[in-house]
Design goal:
The complex is a heterodimer of chains A (489) and B (96). Chain A has 489 residues and is of the alpha/beta class. Chain A contains 15 helices and eleven strands. The chains are: A alpha/beta (489), B mainly alpha (96).
Chain lengths: 489, 96
């Protein structure tokens, strides 16, 4: 193995080389830096790199720790002390995080090295990373297409072998959907399983941090480090954390998988449908029993989400007012002018749209009709899942109804963009966990575009979901496929 | 449910402390009108027997000791300030 080949390794494989002292953490960082230099001009996954600090950490790395010496990319909405945390927004240009997110602290304690910050839709609002105020990120499988979003930088970096693994955040699918479109694994833990302390808040009742990786095992390894109670996040669950990696196995005997009939909608790409059908057969052949289930309020999920998420965002983003940090407008006339102009020029269009919608649905006279009603329908959606999980251990669906779309294809019509999240959004509303694993390819215009299989599990059932996803993954070769740009030149 | 016709983007933007150009206000009026028409579908759901859910999981009344701990110094808190002086954030005059 030459240094040039290192970035293609999974975290687990890199670790065994590090522990056998066949490779040093410094060599891994060097190889990764060269890989990023070679491909990131085309991909655009990173917003900032902290190579010097990372190299120094690598020299002192204890490779016998659970993630010892493993460099990881961090979505640029999670605070790494001293590094920029721009949320891909002009309003946070120049801001440096004065503290570490709990997940970053825990990754460091496990020996991992936060290496660079990845691109996203501004404040994680979007499904294509095109809402970044900084730059575009391109899909490594087809550079004319989006990587998905909002954790598009993290997904593209992992897919292009420009990261061994990454953290993202998922409010309505922002880990799972880009993982599907970029051909990597993306895991959204149960709401409260991973601390949100140090994650810049978008919709606090929905946001959750999780890993994007090349394999399910790697996601389990990262989960081992980041999951668990944190007194600094009052919504964090005080429940024991199992060893997720130790529980991975290869068969699905006795597992009951539910196929929600409402997810078989028109508008699913035929190649996506075929891949999911094949994956269901495959899981059946591994011993899983396939059961039809119903989630009657599926059709309401996107509508509920865009009321609740925007309402919460309108409150959370009130703090960006040009007073304490970030961008401030020049020569304001008075304080209201300072707020109004700072927010006019500091936020991009999608963020402004959502703040305005969220303010409206919370405003006097409309609260009951929109916000309160949406909260009630959220309860119905949660109940749908609770009932389904009485019959099955997990639900199975496409992660996204379509493979990666073209850059620019959906930007003019926000509603069309919102519908990209139709299969992922309900899991956030219900607070449950879910994963996307590669399950095939669509052939489009001479390019192979990855397809993702989504498995949803009940609250705190991460270990079982990872186990099922691992069993499926290991019975296929999809996770071994690399995009053209990732192949050594 | 109120309809899309009730939304006055320019007015709501003022509530949200966002100045908008006329062009942007017009574009948002159309786009958010589409979104509000789309969410009309929530009228069909029967919510007569459900309580509103603010959170997916039942967590209530999380308390901790009200004890002092090491946290930001004033200097750290001011480290990202656009304008500061004498340990304070500087803003335009607020009171007459």
């Amino acid at each position: 193995m030459t240094e040039k080949d290192l970035p293609a390794l999974s975290i687990a494989d890199l670790q065994s080389l590090l522990r056998r002292r066949e490779v040093s953490a410094r060599e891994a960082i060097n190889a990764l830096r060269e890989r990023i230099q070679a491909v990131d001009g085309e991909i655009g996954a990173y917003l900032s790199l902290d190579v010097d600090a990372a190299t120094k950490e690598a020299e002192e790395a204890n490779v016998d720790l659970p993630l010892g010496g493993v460099p990881l990319a961090i979505k640029d909405i999670i605070s790494v002390m001293g590094q920029p945390c721009t949320c891909a927004s002009k309003i946070l240009r120049g801001y440096r995080a004065p503290y570490n997110a709990t997940v970053v602290q825990r990754l460091r304690a496990a020996g991992a090295i936060p290496f660079g910050k990845t691109n996203l839709d501004e404040f994680a609002m979007g499904s294509s990373t095109e809402n970044s105020a900084v730059k575009l990120t391109r899909n490594p499988w087809d550079l004319s297409r989006v990587p998905g979003g909002s954790s598009g930088g993290s997904a593209a970096a992992v897919a292009a072998d420009a990261a061994f693994g990454a953290l993202g955040s998922d409010t309505g699918g922002s880990i799972r959907q880009p993982a599907a479109l970029s051909g990597v694994v993306g895991f959204k833990p149960t709401y409260g399983r991973v601390s949100r302390f140090g994650l810049v808040a978008f919709a606090s009742s929905l946001d959750q941090i999780g890993p994007l990786t090349k394999t399910v095992r790697d996601s389990a390894l990262i989960m081992n480090a980041i999951a668990g109670h944190d007194p600094q996040d009052s919504t964090s669950l005080n429940e024991p954390v199992p060893d997720y990696a130790a529980k991975l196995g290869n068969d699905l005997r006795g597992v009951r998988l539910g196929l929600p009939k409402e997810y078989m909608i028109e508008g699913i790409d035929p190649q996506v449908k075929a891949a999911i059908d094949a994956a269901v057969k495959q899981m059946n052949s591994l011993g899983a029993e396939i059961v039809d289930v119903s989630l009657p309020h599926t059709d309401c999920a996107v509508a509920v989400y865009y009321i609740l998420a925007t309402a919460e965002a309108s409150a959370n983003l009130a703090r960006f007012d040009g007073v304490r940090y970030g961008y401030r407008t020049e020569n304001p006339k008075d304080i209201l002018n300072l707020y109004g102009r700072t927010r006019e020029h500091g936020f991009g269009p999608e963020v402004k749209r959502r703040i305005i919608l969220g303010t409206y649905v919370l405003s006097s006279g409309y609260y009951d009709a929109y916000y309160l009603r949406a909260q009630k329908v959220r309860e119905l959606i949660r109940h749908d899942f609770a009932k389904a999980f009485e019959k099955v251990d997990a639900l199975i669906s496409p992660t996204s109804p379509v493979p990666a779309f073209k850059l620019g294809e959906r930007t003019a019509d926000p509603l069309q963009m919102y519908l990209a999240d139709i299969f992922t959004i309900a899991a956030n509303l219900a607070g449950i966990c879910g994963i996307s694993v590669p399950c095939g390819f669509a052939e489009v215009d001479g390019h192979r575009l990855p397809i993702g299989l989504q498995l949803l599990g009940k609250a705190l059932d991460e270990a079982r979901i990872l186990q099922m996803a691992h069993a499926y993954e290991q019975s296929t070769d999809w996770h071994k496929a690399r995009p053209p740009i990732a192949s050594p030149k | 449910m109120a309809g899309a016709a009730d939304l006055d983007v320019a007015y709501v933007a003022r509530l949200a402390r966002i100045n908008l150009s006329e062009e942007e206000a017009n574009a948002f009026q159309k786009q958010l009108g589409d979104v509000l028409n789309y969410v009309e579908k929530l009228r069909q759901a029967d919510v007569s027997r459900v309580e509103a859910a603010a959170h997916a999981l039942p967590i209530f009344n999380v308390f901790r000791e009200d004890a002092p701990r090491d946290w930001f110094t004033a200097e750290q808190a001011l480290s990202n300030a656009p304008r500061k002086a004498n340990g304070l954030f500087i803003v335009p005059k607020v009171v007459e």
